[in-house]
Design goal:
The chain is an alpha+beta fold and 369 residues long. It contains ten helices and 13 strands.
C-alpha cells in the first residue's frame, strides 16, 4: 500500500526536475564560440522589439555607425556594421587595463614600482619627484607627470597642468602620458608589446572574429615623447567579447583568464569626476547620466570604456549586459558625427527600457560580490 504514495512522490520529483531542466540550462553561462549566438526571435527572452526600435531611431538621429547589445552571452540586438574594425580611440586604455591585470596576476608587473626603479624617463628628462610616481598611479591617471604626450587632442593639450604642479598621487588628470607610458612599461616587463599580448591573451582565447594582426594595430609616435600611443582597431562584436569577459569576472569557458580580484579593483573609483562619476584603472565609473542602470546594493556593477568621437562600451555586471557603440572615426567628416557621453547615456537608457524585467541583480549574483 505504501508503493503508490512512493511512486507518486517519485513521479512528482521527476516532473519537477523536467520543469526545472530548461531553467537550469538557461541559467548556465553562455559564451560565444566562433560567432555570437543569436536569438531565434526578434525580441528574445522578454526584450521589447518595439522599444529597441526606439533605440534604433535615436541611433539614426546620432548617425551612429554601429551598436549592439549582448545579454547573458547572446547577441540580442545589432544595429549597423558591427563587423568592421574601427579605431577604439581611448577605449584602447580599458583593453590595456585587462591585459595589465593578466600580467599582474602572473607577477610580471608590480604596481608599486616607481618610474625611477623601472628606469622610465622621457625627452628632456623627468624630475626626481616625477620619477617617484608608481605604475598604480599611472593606471589611475594620478601620476603628476605632465610631460607632452603622443596622440593628445588639442583640448587635452590646453588643459594639461603645468609640470610640477601636483605631486604623484595627489590629483587626477586624464593624462595620455600616463597611458602611453604604461605601454612602454608593459613591453619592458613582459618582453612583448601591447599588440602581441592583445593577440595571444585576448583575441585568441576570446575568438575575435574580425581582428587581423598586425594590420589592426598601430603605434603612433610623436617627437614630443619617447612613449608612443598604441592604436587598436576592433569591431563592435569583438570589443563586446572583452566586455563579456569583464561581466563574467574574468572567466571564459571554464578558464580564468584574468582574476576577478583585478577586475573589481580596476573598475573601482579612485577619483571623483564631474557628473558624479569616477575613474579606476583606465575604466570610467559611470555617473549620474547612467543612474537608471544602477541597482541598489550592487558593488562594482557598472564600468564604462569611453573613446573620443563616440566609441563606448558599457558593462553591466549585475544584469550581464554589454552595450557597445561605435562611430567610424576613419572618415574625415567623423568629427561632425561625434557622439558624446551624454548622448550615449540616452541611447543606453532606451536600450535598458527594452530589457526584460527579469534582467535584475539576481541574474548573475554580481550584486552580492
Amino acid at each position: 500500500m505504501r508503493l503508490i504514495p512512493r511512486l507518486a512522490t517519485q513521479a512528482w520529483r521527476l516532473a519537477s526536475l523536467c520543469l526545472l531542466a530548461p531553467a537550469l540550462a538557461w541559467a548556465q553561462p553562455v559564451f560565444p564560440g566562433a560567432s555570437w549566438s543569436k536569438p531565434d526571435a526578434p525580441a528574445p527572452s522578454g526584450w521589447s522589439a518595439e522599444k529597441l526600435k526606439l533605440a534604433d531611431d535615436y541611433a539614426d538621429s546620432l548617425r551612429s555607425d554601429a551598436y549592439l547589445v549582448i545579454h547573458r552571452g547572446v547577441l540580442v540586438h545589432a544595429y549597423g556594421d558591427i563587423a568592421k574594425p574601427m579605431n577604439l580611440a581611448s577605449v584602447r586604455k580599458s583593453v590595456l587595463s585587462v591585459l595589465y591585470g593578466m600580467q599582474v596576476d602572473r607577477g610580471a608587473i608590480d604596481l608599486d614600482q616607481s618610474l625611477a626603479s623601472l628606469e622610465i624617463t622621457d625627452k628632456g628628462g623627468l624630475s626626481e619627484v616625477e620619477q617617484a610616481a608608481t605604475v598604480r598611479q599611472l593606471l589611475q591617471a594620478r601620476s603628476g607627470v605632465y610631460h607632452e604626450a603622443a596622440y593628445e587632442t588639442p583640448e587635452a593639450k590646453k588643459r594639461r597642468p603645468e609640470r610640477g604642479s601636483h605631486a604623484p598621487g595627489s590629483s587626477w588628470y586624464y593624462n595620455n602620458w600616463d597611458f602611453n607610458t604604461l605601454g612602454t612599461i608593459f613591453q619592458r616587463r613582459t618582453g612583448r608589446d601591447v599588440f602581441q599580448a592583445l593577440k595571444t591573451d585576448l583575441a585568441e582565447p576570446l575568438q575575435f572574429e574580425d581582428f587581423r594582426y598586425p594590420q589592426d594595430t598601430k603605434f603612433e609616435h610623436e617627437r614630443s615623447s619617447d612613449h608612443p600611443a598604441y592604436l587598436m582597431f576592433l569591431s563592435a562584436r569583438d570589443l563586446a567579447r572583452v566586455g563579456l569577459l569583464l561581466s563574467r569576472d574574468g572567466l571564459w569557458n571554464g578558464r580564468q583568464l584574468v582574476s576577478s580580484a583585478w577586475l573589481r579593483e580596476s573598475i573601482r573609483s579612485y577619483s571623483s569626476i564631474s557628473g558624479g562619476g569616477g575613474y579606476g584603472y583606465m575604466w570610467w565609473v559611470p555617473g549620474q547620466a547612467f543612474r537608471p542602470w544602477r541597482l541598489a546594493g550592487a558593488r562594482e556593477q557598472l564600468a564604462l570604456a569611453d573613446g573620443n568621437g563616440g566609441q563606448f562600451m558599457l558593462v553591466d555586471r549585475a544584469r550581464d549586459i554589454v552595450l557597445v557603440h561605435r562611430v567610424d572615426n576613419s572618415r574625415l567628416w567623423y568629427r561632425r558625427n561625434a557622439v558624446d557621453v551624454g548622448q550615449f547615456a540616452v541611447l543606453a537608457e532606451r536600450v535598458l527600457a527594452a530589457a526584460p524585467m527579469v534582467a535584475g541583480a539576481t541574474d548573475t549574483g554580481a550584486a552580492a560580490k
